[in-house]
């Protein structure tokens, strides 16, 4: 007897502005995930059966985590109800209902954003499909990406979001119980410097961030306001992307899983001392960063009926 097909119903919030329509339906995950805008809501219909009903939320969240790598938005989702289908062709045709609060954008901004919204979502899908195996095959990257997603949802100017971002960096750059602050800040600053960020600034900022993280988790009291806290998000995002690029390399994939993180950290440490290795690593990273470059506008501005507007859509 065949498994019953199901349509799992979700509403995705924060991926694109609520007032923006999708000019077409967007299919992801080889036709198993359908995104469609109805009114202010971005509906996600996930195709499944009786066997995979327990991992349906993870399959949605996987795409949203990737969206945080190319966007400052921190999308989330609600729902999860299911309805039986007779065939795959019924996906997206069984209605469900939810409520949400509508934000207001100028009509001119909405019209401009709608020209690109489907391309933005499609880009996330391509990025996900290209690198999801790298993430799933390297537990430390999976952990780092998960904590970064939580940090973006909670916002790094909240204590919870800030701590999650620093833990994400620890998952990438630390391999033992000692000298964590130094290893994290030194290795991260080196890699960030290879892609045109200021390595000296990154080194001292990351040491400071780690100190503040330790104070928070050990009950040291509230932290003073730091206008540079947003940098922890920027550093973490770029570091995750760099590791994904490096571990998408076929030669590194041949290293056994339980040794892969140790070996790539050794490679980073050696490149700090060897100019030829450093140049090779820099070239590889810069080439890979092209895959993460979103070649559509993120910010839309102009004169509207009610005056000048400037909207960051994603």
Query: Major β-sheet, in short?
Result: 5 strands, antiparallel
Helix tally? Answer: 11
Shape: globular
In total, the number of strands is: 7
Strand order of the largest sheet: 2-3-4-1-5
Total of domains: 2
What would the average pLDDT be, to the nearest integer?
A: 90
Radius of gyration equals: 21 Å
Q: What would your notes on this structure say?
A:
It contains 11 helices and 7 strands. With 314 residues, the protein is an alpha+beta fold. The chain folds into 2 domains: 5-103, no CATH class; 122-292, no CATH class. Helix 5 packs across helix 6. The N and C termini lie far apart (45 Å). Mean pLDDT is 90; it is low at 97-102.
How would you sum up this structure in a few lines?
The chain is α+β, with helices and mostly antiparallel strands. The protein contains 11 helices and 7 strands.
Q: Which key terms come to mind for this protein?
A:
single chain; 314 residues; alpha+beta; 7 strands; 50% helix
Describe how the helices and strands are arranged.
Layout: E1 5-13, E2 26-28, E3 33-38, E4 41-49, H1 56-67, E5 76-85, H2 107-114, H3 117-136, H4 139-154, H5 159-173, H6 180-194, H7 199-217, H8 230-246, H9 250-253, H10 257-271, H11 275-289, E6 299-304, E7 307-312
Helix pairs in contact: 1-3, 4-5, 4-8, 5-6, 5-7, 5-8, 6-7, 8-11, 10-11
